[in-house]
Amino acid sequence: MKAAVLTAPRALQIDDRAAPSVGPDDVLLRVHTCGVCGTDSHIFQGEFLVKFPVVPGHEVSGSVEEVGENVTHVRPGDPVTVDPNIHCGVCRFCRAGKINLCENLTAVGVNRDGGFAGYCRAPAKQVLKLPENVSLEAGAFAEPLACCLHGLDRARFEPGMSVLILGGGSIGQQMLQLVKTGGARQVVLSEPMENRRQLALACGADHVIDPLHENAIKAMREATGGGADLTIECVGRPQTVEQAVKSTLRGGTVLLFGVSGPEDLAKIHPYEVFLHELTIVGSFINPFTQSRAIEALAAGRFDPSKIISHRYPVAGFGEALEQSRSRDAVKVVVQPAKEEAGRD
Ligand SMILES: [Zn+2]
Ligand SMILES: [Zn+2]
Q: Which of the chain's termini has less CB crowding within 10 Å, N or C?
């Protein structure tokens, strides 16, 4: 199989190697789709607890090729997706049910080989079967959608809320579709790129804002009738964090979802948080939400074809990674079947 391998920070090579062999509790997938995510750029730079060499890729779907002898819940040929985040089960956070805060968290595509390859091995308990009406391409979105659903849980999202989303990249667009189909009364999205604003409108945003050409906070407040009940920051920059706090209605909630740099600092007026009874919450990965993400896909709450902008073969992973950071990309995916077929 072809595999995209990171051997050290910023050192990528495309290997030809044998597919991994399965242990008694493993599943081997023939990869159909693996999404390129912002996290992959961080992994490429050697951030997070990456273990080199590694095949990155944690948003994986495929069909089961082989199962270990103890595996009973999926069979060869089944369409599946992977929950990449593996908790230890014995630390105090796991014991308290907060598995995403596990002290010994490992992840497929971070510190064990992931999905930017022809085949991917995963522990069987991390593998979820896809229903018939969810395509393999859509199945690769189960993980990022599961992260979004956990964020919406943390923010206590409810139907009838007005929602402001900062950032119209892949995650902002997924949040948009989820809150829209989840009964938001109004959804406003702020994004500097014209193509992403147009996409947001096509996906049901009631109003879009260009934060570079308008007084952003004023425009956001006006568009939401004084401020949003829920503001979702999907950029991860100090400036947008500050905008998020300033654009939230009294009694409202700010969800910090974008991944900031570890050294970033944002300025917030504590007086405003006090006076307006703001709730500011963080959200990390996907504890117990991946099945719900699959249900959301089955119910048609999210259409991946609207946001996939580029598809690459495994051999094009370097280009895919670069493209994912470019202006015209929204979501870039890798599909091993494209190895012979070329790309689009
Ligand atoms: Zn991701
Ligand atoms: Zn643990």
A: C
